Amino acid sequence: MTTSTKTIERPDIREDISTDDDTPKFFHYVKKDQIVESAVSGKMVVALCGETFPVTKQAKPGSPVCPDCERVYRSLRKK
Ligand SMILES: [Zn+2]
């Protein structure tokens, strides 16, 4: 009697395709009290440029600042 044990080698390769598409490409300026409120309530924040996003989605460190936010921010400071 022969017992044939077949060992199928199955390499455990998992392609780690992480979809980072949700990550914003820019940092947006958001009012501080909105960030605090959003962190507590989970609400979306509204950036100076009008962009809305959950505060959990942060741009990667080193990302450029959103040019629209920058412009609004500067015009606000000129007052
Ligand atoms: Zn922005």
Nutshell version of this structure?
With 79 residues, the chain is α+β, with helices and mostly antiparallel strands. The protein has helices at 32-41, 67-77, and strands spanning 44-46, 52-54.
Tell me what you see in this structure.
With 79 residues, the protein is an alpha+beta fold. It has a domain at 32-77. The protein is 27% helix and 8% strand. It is built from two helices and two strands. The chain has helices at residues 32-41, 67-77; strands at 44-46, 52-54. A two-stranded antiparallel ribbon has the order 1-2. The longest helix is centred in the last third of the chain and has 11 residues, at 67-77. The mean pLDDT is 81. The structure holds zinc ion. This is DUF3039 domain-containing protein. It comes from Corynebacterium matruchotii ATCC 14266.
Topology:
Elements: H1 32-41, E1 44-46, E2 52-54, H2 67-77
Antiparallel strand pairs: 1-2
Bound molecules: zinc ion.
Number of strands: 2
Order of helices and strands: HEEH
Lateral arrangement of strands in the main beta sheet? 1-2
Oligomerization = single chain
Q: What does the overall shape look like?
A: elongated
Strand content: 5-15%
Q: Please tell me how large the radius of gyration is.
A: 23 Å
Query: Sheet bearing the most strands, described?
Result: 2 strands, antiparallel
Residue runs with pLDDT of under 50 for 5 or more positions: none
- Report the bound ligands by name, code or SMILES: zinc ion
Mean pLDDT: 81
Number of helices: 2
Straight-line distance between termini: 92 Å
- Class computed from helices, strands and strand pairing: alpha+beta
